[in-house]
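Morning F.,

Quick status update on the modeling queue. The single chain you submitted on Monday has been processed. Sequence for confirmation:
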Amino acid sequence: MDKITNLLMDSGIANMDIGQATMIAVGLLLLYLAIAKRFEPLLLLPIGIGCVLVNIPGAGLYAEPIYALNGSLESPGGLFYYIFHIGIETGIFPLMIFMGVGAMTDFGPLLANPKMLLLGAAAQFGIFATVIGAVALTQTGLVDYSLAQAAAIGIIGGADGPTSIFVSSQLAPELLGAIAVAAYSYMALVPLIQPPIMRAFTNEEERKIVMRQLRTVSKTEKICFPIILVVLVALILPSAAPLLGMFCFGNLMKESGVVDRLTDTVQNALINIVTILLGLGVGAKLSSDSFLNFETVGILLLGLAAFCIGTMSGVLMAKLMNVFSENKINPLIGSAGVSAVPMAARVSNKVGLEYNNQNFLLMHAMGPNVAGVIGSAVAAGVMLSYLK
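Structure tokens below.
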């Protein structure tokens, strides 16, 4: 009988507190959104599982290794501990994800209409506006964000999950879980968040603008662009080199056409493996003691504000460009300046078709969408350069 009593007392149920139960419920919600609603399932599913497992009392999945006085290992750490510290804290996983994204990216629409770089740049305004907002919120006394933490939160506005994780792992690792969940949640909610903002800042006539067909981009242009881009940006802003370098390297493998086996591996097997480990590592940071606080609520609200401001800024920049341009730009594609590739571009196309069923904006929207990836990487480099 005593053995049964001891077994029950040592169980996870007997040792669970309200915070852990709450976070397990959050993990189950993420699993529901991933499976039933298909919101970013490739990441929300492993994040959700990681969140559930790390909050089970006694499981020890995030336990730190214990060393004796002589330096020998007495007790190894948990699986999630090594996944996080080896792959996420070092920045390896986000960089490998960026390499895979680069291998699946086509710079053609951007090269065919280089003006789209302005839309990608404008959409990054949400990042810097949110940094100011985070600092201002700290002045209220409700939360206490350092400037480095504010910068990590602001990157959410770029709608780029790997970049958000990379920056937060460098500047504010204690906020990584909340920042990652916010970034990927808002990326998943692009079809719900962006259309009302797009309609609010455009009129029906602007939404019906038909853009002329893009020119054909040569293979030589596609090969030279990632090389020139990474060299120029790295020389001017070295701190952006890791993100942009891996992104351009992945793209160069695809466009060169001489390493098909490597390209296939990066586009499929490698990025899939890293995505699983990245999701589990992020979920491991969603423990109740680090997630359930006012700071997390502030991160979620500021992240939403950053995303909305970025969307609005891209649309308004497109309207401004139309004042000086003979070839009019449909302002709806400005919302694709956030780097949620390719979902934001699809949303621009979908809203455009609602007002003109012959107006296909997808390829036009891919220009600012790819520019947004470049813009968020540069913004991350600026943050790291000044605050790390």
